[in-house]
């Protein structure tokens, strides 16, 4: 496993396991346990995923020492603001049954970001949160938060996949000591990703799947990845990406797939912001 050093001084596994949309508690618990058994040490969840309790049970069942695991969760929009975020952190710790979190993220770049960040800085100072960061922040929002805060974000988790590569955003993060992390690395299979002849040909050359080719491409960009699967065979396949390397020309081939447009939605769309404001969860 590759590890990357964050600006907090902590080491983060470059490949982890995400649990977005694994809604059934039993399925989520079994999937996380299988992932840990397969060698994953980074587990990424969120309060809004409503599966933190299942993740916590899997962690306890795994028997892996806590210090060997890197656990991430996130605060949702409804809990933005200083006092709300303090309570949200405590609730996540209770659901996960953990004493500390390796990484805590602001899930969406809306509402009282600075109030939440002050709460996160406070928990960071006490080492309840070992690293703090954000998700879905554009360079201007990252700069705003960094310039006017005491602690800079350690991570920014954003959509990065072959169709939306975010070269400028990734370069900006790396130049400013913020670790880029990818969600939707496979674009949820959109644009026929898994059947593209160019990626299938690369997979045939290296004896790898299209998913492994995409993950390797991201890893070579020094991006953290968190692929999700409930299939143990695919989990094992997704983590098996450290024994080959794409050439510069092959990386260039994938670069040519970039459309410059999100496969899902724009976080700067006013209508999306209005919609997100109304999305509440029982957390």
From TrEMBL:
Keywords: NADP, Oxidoreductase. Residues 15-256 form the NADP-dependent oxidoreductase domain. One of its GO terms (molecular function) is oxidoreductase activity, acting on the CH-OH group of donors, NAD or NADP as acceptor. Substrate binds at residue 107. The active site is at residue 49. The record marks 74 as: Lowers pKa of active site Tyr. PANTHER family: 2,5-DIKETO-D-GLUCONIC ACID REDUCTASE, NADP-DEPENDENT OXIDOREDUCTASE DOMAIN-CONTAINING PROTEIN. Belongs to the aldo/keto reductase family. This is Aldo/keto reductase. It comes from Candidatus Pantoea deserta.
